[in-house]
């Protein structure tokens, strides 16, 4: 009888030991978060910036002890090639991997919107550091943007035209993409009426990747603008500035935060001086946390300077980690619910989400002077 009791007790201890060991393994499993963007192709700089920033932040978090229960963050990267079809396929793969609890990405609004229905259907929280289309965050309760809405940033460009350049006659140039055309439409048909001091005198569209702007410049000059707002990224704004200023060196040029890149300065060269744009993040801010982020980023990535969207990707991972820590859970639904409650103080400022998943941001105004981005002092205007 005693032998039987001892045998039962021994078996019980073995079962408990196995359960404990299995639970311990579960506790030690890393928390996987995906980062998705164009890692190859024409917009690879943006996707690589997302990946670099997220991996840097994960390294820092892990070095500091990981999340609330000591687990580490593991980043899983995907290349969507800035293609909606590829993004939708990747979203299916992520949704089917229960170990991935959140997504930082995608880059372009249209691409983000191609992936969002899958994330919403399965319940995977997605934070895009860059999507600005008004309809994006409204696609579901799991869909968040850590960026401003198009209309908010577009209004900043009109404010720059009015306050910085004292513009009177404004032309608009847009790249023929969902983002470019939508942004131009909002500028011209919604926001301009609130700026009676500005007259929108002309509008032109160009194909993305265009390198010869001669015919477009001829059309734009016929409108006799003193200022042109360019709804395009640095790959368009830089060469366009070169070619337009060869003819009219006094034209004022305004871009958007997606053109805030050292590549803009390299492409525009001396013709970049005087280009102004709104940006949430400024890499030369004196704030200690910004200085630390920029220094660490440049150290890890061969001296590259992080852009505004790169900083927002860095903060997006921070938001996921803060939500996990505050919820004391890495469950997808728990993370989503907590994201609506967080107040995140990051390198791109303080961010919180409204009931739709939109973030509220404060913009800096930047201008290129002597081949460097500088901050415009609004108080002196």
UniProtKB/TrEMBL annotation:
InterPro entries: BCAA_transport, Leu-bd, Leu_Ile_Val-bd, Peripla_BP_I. Gene3D superfamilies: 3.40.50.2300. Residues 1-21 form the signal peptide. Residues 30-361 form the Leucine-binding protein domain. Keywords: Amino-acid transport, Signal, Transport. GO terms for biological process: amino acid transport. This is ABC-type branched-chain amino acid transport system, periplasmic component. It comes from Sphaerochaeta pleomorpha (strain ATCC BAA-1885 / DSM 22778 / Grapes).
